[in-house]
Design a protein that fits this description.
Chain A: InterPro entries: Kinase-like_dom_sf, Prot_kinase_dom, Protein_kinase_ATP_BS, Ser/Thr_kinase_AS. The complex is a heterodimer. Chain A is an alpha+beta fold. Chain A is built from 17 helices and 15 strands. The relative contact order of chain B is 0.12. Chain B is built from 9 helices and no strands. Chain B has a domain of about 140 residues. Chain B is mainly α. The longest helix of chain B is centred in the middle third of the chain and has 22 residues. The chains are: A alpha+beta, B mainly alpha.
Chain lengths: ~525, ~210
């Protein structure tokens, strides 16, 4: 019988709890705690943190087949508790609905904000990326920066949070499919479809670039396509975590590092030569390269350098010209092939210098391939083939109160969506009707008609519902031969609340604009 | 019967570890275990060194054969991580041989690249070595978890799993599983102890923890 009067020391209880004791000692304590509740409690309350247990936890998280890149493997939503780390499942703010994807950086869960009842996606960063305090700090810093981005072509990040040592990004829940899945299912895409996707991605990238952010991991897997064909870039602000793993090693061994981190960074099918050499060199032109490689993949059905090992691929990015697209399929316009070549130039100086240039080039190509249908008579203006940007002026009156109902209604109709981005030029005149004039570089401006509904989102304007949009109606459209368009927006100010604060709505502020064209 | 069940709860329990088992019985059963434990890890690293899938299986066999042949000669000397370092050296040798005989064409491109990275892996203080160590431990433990699991009652394993691996509170687990707190605490301790025994000599942090006295 154990002697209840002689309790084991705290250290012994601790060691027992961690399975560190020799068999004799362990047996003795086992017998003791069968009778002695306080000692049993002590063990139960001791933290089980030790390196061996941590290693076991990490080991347990290795994928079942142990090898390979699970990126892009879609998973049916499941709420089996084994998939959800406990601290996450118990998060006070978010209720996990199920696992919706796995990626190199971590798993993605669908979740519901308990109070707001808003559906969000949680990207839980693999713990190995954020083990060091500085990595945790950087993650939260980057997430904060990413949360500043608000653009229809970027998956909105709301917040960064953690559950115990699980750090995660709270993001807009996007009901869509990523491009890697689309090409896997369908193979090479039609020319116009591929161009439209990449043009949208370029628009999003340019917006982020203007906010001082580069992506650094552009690839099909990070481009989501929603049901209405909108492309949204995923994972802004996350790529900076990956090089952390890599950057400690000796410079000069970069290929080795990348290879080593192959599971971390995904296959380097889209990485620019300069980024492969030194991740710190990556600027927006590296993103342009990766976007070019992505476009190549969409058009040819395979990455630019498909064969060989990681190192071979990296060497090819640095030294080999990919096979010309024209030789892979016969419906590639020379102009398109030239655009891809320029996006993927080895020397960043020879590429398009900004994503906006890429978007413009693709836009003018699209115009040439499929000129927009002649719009109704009062918009009349011959389409000039080489026109890069369309000038259009629209006057829009926004009735704030009608916003939600209006938007909902239009979603139910058969509509097309036209997007543009612009800058506020002037505000005024009058008090009952306030007007906002926007320069807008949009697309398909010829399709815009009077009466079309418009949604606007001003940069930095705190979100109203999830996207901070408010809307109205196009009063008139004027197209000229100039190279940019102008929107003139009239906003009816119902109350102080609905009028954007002058901090957000002032000359020079950028706005995103969606125009809902009725089916025609 | 690819289990670890060779050792019953005997007087000699602390000295039983997977490593010792492997060394003591270099016959077929031991071979199976070696393959189960190490093939995934080695395969992963062969891929990192650009061995194509078609060659990888042969090379995995070669490495493991070399391990099994020399296991008896391997001396642990009580250094933490000695085994994985030894295994790494065998892997490096095999990879060097492989590339030397296989590939003359490599000269066209960065031939020295693989050599350089192999040299890097051979250097025990390099980043690559650190990565090897970490992956080695995780892969081995992953396999050990699978191997040890059948030796415990389902309830015992579940209690261990939830408390130790999933970080749940023992009290909650006890309540939900409708077992006593004592049962939960005991389950965790027993399974952890077993895992430590099996891992001893293979995984760094498992050894040298015993509090005696």
């Amino acid at each position: 019988m154990p002697d209840q009067a002689i309790h084991p020391t705290r250290a012994e209880l601790h060691s027992y709890g961690l399975g560190q004791l020799s068999p004799d000692k362990a047996t003795a304590i086992e017998m003791h705690i069968r009778e002695c509740e306080p000692c049993c409690e002590t063990i139960a309350n001791l933290s089980s943190n030790d390196t061996f247990v941590e290693l076991l936890q990490e080991a347990e998280q290795l994928p079942a087949d142990q090898i390979g890149d699970h990126e892009g493997v879609p998973i049916k939503p499941s709420s089996s508790s084994e998939d959800i780390p406990v601290p996450l499942a118990e998060h006070p703010r978010y209720e996990i609905v199920g696992l919706i994807g796995r990626g190199g950086m971590g798993n993605v869960y669908e979740a519901r904000h308990r109070k707001m009842e808003r559906t969000v996606a949680l990207k839980v960063i693999n713990r190995e990326f954020v083990r060091k305090t500085e990595a945790v700090d950087r993650f939260h810093r980057e997430a904060k920066t990413a949360a500043q981005l608000s653009h229809p072509n970027i998956v909105t990040a709301y917040d960064a949070d953690n559950a115990g040592d699980y750090h995660f990004m709270v993001m807009e829940y996007v009901d869509g499919v990523d491009l890697s899945r689309i090409i896997k299912d369908r193979g090479a895409l039609p020319v116009t479809e591929a161009c439209k996707y990449i043009r949208q991605a370029a628009t999003g990238l340019h917006y982020a670039y203007e906010q001082g952010m580069v992506h650094r991991d552009i690839k099909p897997h990070n481009l989501m396509v929603t049901a209405d064909g909108t492309v949204k870039i995923l994972d802004f602000g996350l790529a900076s975590l990956a090089p952390e793993v890599v950057s400690d090693a000796n410079a000069g061994e970069v290929l080795g590092e990348l290879t080593t981190a192959g599971t971390v960074m995904g296959t380097p099918d889209y990485i620019s030569p300069e980024q492969a050499e030194d991740a710190r060199q990556a600027d927006v032109r590296s993103d342009i390269y990766s976007l070019g490689a992505t476009l190549y993949h969409l058009l040819s059905g395979r990455p630019p350098f498909d064969d060989g090992s990681v190192t071979q691929k990296l060497n090819s990015h640095a030294q080999v010209e990919p096979e010309r697209l024209e030789s892979l399929r016969d419906d590639i316009p020379v102009e398109l092939s030239t655009i891809v070549t320029r996006m993927m130039a080895k020397d960043p100086e020879e590429r398009f210098q900004t994503p906006a240039e890429v978007a413009a080039a693709l836009e003018s190509l699209l115009q040439a391939i499929e000129p927009p249908q002649k719009p109704s008579p009062h918009q009349i203006r011959p389409v000039r083939k080489r026109r890069r940007l369309l000038l259009l002026a629209a006057v829009v009156t926004l009735f704030i109160a009608a916003l939600v109902a209006g938007v909902m209604q239009f979603f139910q109709m058969d509509i097309g969506t036209i997007r543009g981005t612009g800058k506020v030029v002037a505000i005024g005149p009058g008090t009952s009707q306030r007007a906002v004039e926007l320069w807008i570089s949009g697309d398909d401006g010829l399709l815009v008609q009077e009466g079309d509904d418009v949604r606007l989102h001003f940069e930095g304007w705190p979100a109203m519902r999830s996207d901070g949009a408010f809307g109205g109606e196009v009063m008139s459209v004027d197209l000229t031969d100039d190279t940019a368009g102008i929107f003139r927006i009239l906003i009816k100010a119902d109350g102080k609340e609905s009028w954007p604060d002058p901090r957000y709505l002032r000359p020079g502020v950028r706005a995103n604009c969606w125009i809902f064209t009725r089916s025609r | 019967m690819s289990s670890l069940a060779i050792h019953n709860r005997s007087m000699n329990e602390t000295s039983l570890s997977l490593l010792n088992c492997l060394r003591r019985s270099p016959e077929s059963e031991s071979w199976t275990r070696l393959v189960e434990l190490y093939a995934p890890l080695i395969r992963t690293w062969l891929y990192k060194y650009e061995v194509q899938e078609s060659d990888a299986e042969d090379l995995v066999q070669e490495v493991l054969l070399a391990v099994s042949k020399d296991l008896a000669k391997f001396e642990h000397k009580g250094q933490p991580g000695a085994f994985r370092g030894w295994l790494k050296a065998i892997l490096i040798n095999r990879l060097r041989d492989f590339w030397r005989t296989r590939d003359r064409r490599r000269e066209a491109r960065s031939e020295s690249d693989i050599d350089q990275r192999l040299a890097d892996l051979a250097n025990p203080t390099s980043e690559l070595s650190r990565l090897w160590d970490g992956e080695h431990d995780r892969y081995v433990l992953r396999q050990l978890l699978n191997l040890v699991k059948p030796h415990f009652a389902a309830n015992t394993w579940m209690a261990f799993y939830r408390v130790a691996l999933k970080g749940e509170r023992p009290r909650d687990v006890a309540a939900e599983m409708q077992i006593s707190l004592n049962a939960v605490v005991t389950a965790k301790s027993r399974v952890l102890r077993r895992l430590r025994q099996e891992a001893e000599g293979l995984v760094e942090s498992s050894s040298g923890f015993f509090v005696e006295g």
